[in-house]
Design a protein that fits this description.
mainly beta; 0% helix; 74 residues; six-stranded antiparallel β-sheet
Length: 74
């Protein structure tokens, strides 16, 4: 269980969510984020293609979308 804070650059708003997630396999992560100050709830799925590449989708009652993510570690 984690607490996540996101800031929207366009609207300059901050959202705090309580996030519950679990790895179903070593590469597949699912999470549910419940908004603390609002009623926005988000379902998230992340799949690891390799050590640096990920596919991620998020879905809520207001919007949904997907991303291809690349991670750089130093």
């Amino acid at each position: 269980m984690t607490v996540e804070t996101r800031q929207d650059a366009e609207q300059e708003t901050r959202e705090t969510s309580l996030v519950l997630g679990k790895y179903l396999t070593p590469r597949l992560y699912v999470a549910y984020a419940a908004g603390v100050a609002n009623t926005l709830n988000v379902f998230r799925v992340r799949y690891e293609l390799s050590k640096r590449w990920f596919l991620q989708t998020e879905s809520s009652s207001q919007e949904s979308g997907g991303d291809v993510l690349f991670r750089i570690e130093r």
